[in-house]
Amino acid sequence: MLPALVVVFLACVLGLSLLFPRAALIVWIVALETSPDDWLAQLIGRHETIVAVIKGYGLVLLAVLALRHGLRRDRYNPAFAFGAMYLTGLIHGLYPGLTLLASTRSLIGSAAPFLFAFIRLPPHIIRAIIRAALWGPLVSVAFGGLLAALGLHAMYMVEQGVLRLGAAGEPPFLAGFALVGLYAGLMEFLASPRLGTAGLVLANFIIILLTGARAPLALAVGIILVLLVLQYRLFLLAFAGLLASAAVLFSGALSFIRIIGLARLGEAANLSHRNLVWPYFEHAFLASPFFGWGVGAGKVVIPYNATLATLLGTNAAHDEYLRIGTEGGAFGLILLILLLGLWGYRGSAHLPVAQRLFMRLIFIGFAIQSATDNTLIATTSSVLFLWCSGIFASSEKPPKAAA
């Protein structure tokens, strides 16, 4: 009976997605941001299955939106780079321990966040994406509070004596989602300055601060400061300086916040033990520097059951340049960087000047963050690039009706 019930349930989900694609898309984004791959996996296990279901449903939505609204050309889409790396990996030979099936799954997972850019997204779908990106982190915090009240998941974690907000998931992922929410809010504010939008930007910034994630916080602060200078909001810049001065003055009382606590202790370096992980990926990259070892090789350079992966709790590279270099060699890495740059540059070309500069700043910040974080393989990338696809689509002129 169980397989039959599963089939019926999936048929119902597909039918509802076809009837209400906008609502289904919002549910999917919120599901990503509430991190069932973390809290639900702690309750029932099957982490990989949960991730596969979430990503699989995203592909279903992709197909539904393509059927309803049609396709568009996107010549600089970064998904092409992963396709090229997949083919060169097959020609060159896959990394020992990487199977063809695993490489194919990694290809789908790597390309999926960019595939929404091939769809003609209508205005009401774009608005749904923007609103979900804005509110998603706050929903995650509220849902995390509910899970904590039920005793199902800890809302905070303690690291070296300081607190980190994780809500329904883990602090780095919550920070990544909040960073996308901050981007979405700032983009809205540039288009139409409103107090409510500013409040959402501030809420997402506070979430980033409470997660203690250093790279997202640095990006948030840096981009806000650049925008203030570009917009000549010098009084706001002065107000931000006043707040920073107050934070320094009262840093003793705020030492429970991770960023401040670690700065006071002088222990803010190498908390993710990247120096232990990077040599493995450097060795794999140098062993095949031109074309790499195929898409997915980054998952097996350090096996899941290796002692190092067990001690660190992850086998991720913490450096997308090293990981992509391992999977696609110099060819794949350069191709992906070029396509990401062209995708962001061309996609933002028709935006108003302030928004255009802002989108390009986001891509520059993403490139910087990728040197120390798992930016492309994290679930946060699905929300980020879906939002980017919506913004790019919103700036395009609608196609002319046939005579």
Helices, strands, pairings?
Elements: H1 2-19, H2 21-33, H3 36-44, H4 47-69, H5 79-92, H6 100-111, H7 123-149, E1 156-159, E2 162-165, H8 171-191, H9 195-211, H10 214-230, H11 234-249, H12 258-265, H13 274-287, H14 307-312, H15 320-347, H16 353-369, H17 380-394
Antiparallel strand pairs: 1-2
Written description of the protein model:
- The protein is mainly α.
- 68% of the residues lie in helices and 2% in strands.
- The chain has helices spanning 2-19, 21-33, 36-44, 47-69, 79-92, 100-111, 123-149, 171-191, 195-211, 214-230, 234-249, 258-265, 274-287, 307-312, 320-347, 353-369, 380-394; strands at 156-159, 162-165.
- The protein has a two-stranded antiparallel sheet with strand order 1-2.
Number of helices: 17
Largest sheet: 2 strands, antiparallel
| Strand arrangement, major sheet | 1-2
Q: What is the CA–CA distance across the termini? A: 54 Å
| Mean pLDDT rating | 84
Tell me the strand percentage band: under 5%
Shape verdict:
globular
Residue share in helix: 55-70%
Low-confidence stretches: 249-256, 265-269
Radius of gyration: 21 Å
Backbone structural class: mainly alpha
Could you give the count of β-strands?
2
Order of SSEs: HHHHHHHEEHHHHHHHHHH
